[in-house]
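Below is a filled-in request sheet from our internal design queue. Each sheet records the structural input a requester submitted and the sequence that came back. We keep these sheets so that new team members can see what a complete request looks like end to end.

REQUESTER: design group, bay 2
PRIORITY: normal
MODE: inverse folding
CHAIN LENGTH: 477
BACKBONE (tokenized):
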């Protein structure tokens, strides 16, 4: 018996039991025609959440989408999921999947799962390529909601937070507070992308390296011990050096005060446009990341389709913590979307147990050891909910410096139950790699609570839309 038929029988059993024992709404009579199909309900509810900055519960969403003539409550299919499974002897789907049942299908009255999840004991039933069960079609993705914030575009806001002591850095060895902004143009005055730039001290020592983006912008950072006096830019065999303006008081200032000095440079050489793009997903796969893993598993193919396959390669680097089944795992970059989807679908969120995770080891593998293509735009999404270990600050800084030098734009995506230190660590990493900071919100109604970041106004969007837009923004061809 296919899982949709089994689940229909389960639902019928629950309804008969409810009739016999009484219910909260005994006068309600539910029919297939009264209940909308799950994907439509989910999509409509997500759109409503974005426009109104709120999300109805799944039951409320089903009720709102029903015919106006019905005065019933939405079906309580979110209750007693475990009892439903036990009553029918269902062991194909685990409890996480049962939690995602969203409505009855309008066509045949069977339950529709928003996210089927493989049960470790049901490998003979589940197709690992698409997580279909007995031939069922892979379902619609969950519509996680999120916000995006770029501290580089709001530097005054960021500086005021730091200067007032509201937020503090360094964060795990990474200090984004002392910025040197570089704008590089070619001989015709157009932005010069993909040039190597380096901040130098008075002795010519290299402090920080980066690569200009497609707008000819790069950000370099001073350290507590090294003060920058000049910037060198190199592209196509040409080179130019310019002095960095002195700070107002002639010094860098103490570590509790943000600084920002700007340099404009011209390099008379032809711009190089990169027609390839590499996108890496660095994913915490410990036990608390189940919702985020389900999202990526169900939505990755849709992301790749919208971005477009031409010239785009993907990689997934998974990490847990020391003592788990693995610390990091990756199979490198591939242009085969189905191959990466298969990698994602094999992963299970488990392990961990304490808050810090092996972020430093993941960064070393991703930014130091991974073979990135010099001729590609490079983007890395860090999907995580916990900070690194305290003793790993030096390794983390080395990895972030390597990412900046290679032009890898790091985009942290903070998930549910993230702490303030998790937020500040992510923002520091994004700032130092010219990336963007993304955070999940409570508007989707999925998962645990999400920390509200200390930022200005932002728009609530679908996480899918933010990821696609960021990739498109960084792409050059």
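RETURNED SEQUENCE:
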């Amino acid at each position: 018996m296919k899982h949709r038929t089994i689940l229909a029988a389960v639902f019928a059993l629950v309804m008969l039991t409810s009739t016999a024992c009484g219910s909260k709404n005994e006068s309600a009579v539910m029919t297939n025609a009264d209940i909308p199909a799950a994907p439509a309900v989910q999509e409509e509810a997500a759109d409503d959440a974005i426009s109104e900055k709120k999300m109805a519960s799944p039951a409320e969403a089903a009720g709102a989408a029903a015919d106006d003539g019905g005065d019933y409550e939405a079906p309580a299919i979110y209750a007693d999921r475990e009892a439903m499974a036990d009553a029918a002897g269902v062991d194909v789907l685990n409890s996480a999947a049962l939690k995602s049942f969203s409505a009855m299908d309008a066509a045949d009255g069977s339950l529709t799962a928003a996210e089927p999840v493989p049960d470790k004991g049901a490998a003979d039933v589940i197709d690992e390529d698409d997580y279909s069960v007995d031939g069922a079609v892979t379902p619609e993705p969950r519509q996680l909601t999120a916000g995006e914030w770029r501290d580089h575009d709001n530097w005054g806001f960021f500086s005021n937070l730091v200067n007032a002591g509201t937020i503090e850095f360094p964060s795990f060895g990474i200090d984004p507070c002392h910025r040197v902004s570089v704008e590089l143009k070619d001989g015709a005055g157009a932005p010069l992308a993909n040039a190597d730039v380096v901040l130098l001290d008075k002795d010519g020592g290299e402090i920080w390296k980066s690569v200009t983006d497609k707008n000819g912008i790069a950000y370099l950072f001073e350290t507590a011990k090294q003060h920058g006096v000049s910037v060198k830019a190199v592209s196509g065999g040409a080179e130019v050096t310019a002095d960095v303006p002195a700070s107002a008081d002639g010094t860098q200032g103490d570590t509790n005060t943000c600084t920002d000095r700007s340099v404009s440079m011209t390099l008379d050489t032809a711009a190089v446009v990169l027609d390839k793009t590499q996108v890496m997903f660095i994913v915490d796969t410990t036990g608390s990341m189940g919702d985020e893993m389900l999202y990526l598993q169900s939505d990755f193919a849709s992301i790749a389709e919208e971005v477009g396959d031409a010239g785009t390669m993907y990689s997934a680097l998974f990490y847990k913590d020391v003592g788990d089944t693995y610390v990091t795992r990756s199979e490198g970059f591939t242009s085969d979307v189905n191959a990466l989807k298969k990698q994602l679908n094999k992963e299970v969120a488990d392990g961990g147990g304490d808050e810090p995770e092996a972020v430093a080891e993941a960064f070393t593998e991703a930014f130091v050891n991974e073979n990135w293509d010099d001729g590609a735009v490079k983007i890395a999404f860090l999907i995580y909910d916990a900070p690194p270990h305290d003793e790993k600050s030096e390794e983390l800084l080395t990895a972030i410096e390597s990412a900046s030098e290679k032009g890898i734009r790091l985009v942290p995506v903070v998930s549910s139950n993230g702490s303030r230190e998790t937020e500040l660590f992510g923002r520091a990493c994004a700032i130092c790699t010219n990336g963007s900071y993304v955070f999940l919100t409570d508007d989707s109604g999925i998962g645990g609570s999400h920390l509200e970041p200390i930022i200005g106004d932002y728009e609530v969007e679908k996480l899918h839309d933010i990821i696609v837009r960021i990739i498109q923004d960084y792409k050059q061809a």
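SHEET NOTES:
- Residues 3-140 form one domain.
- The mean pLDDT is 77.
FILED BY: M.R.
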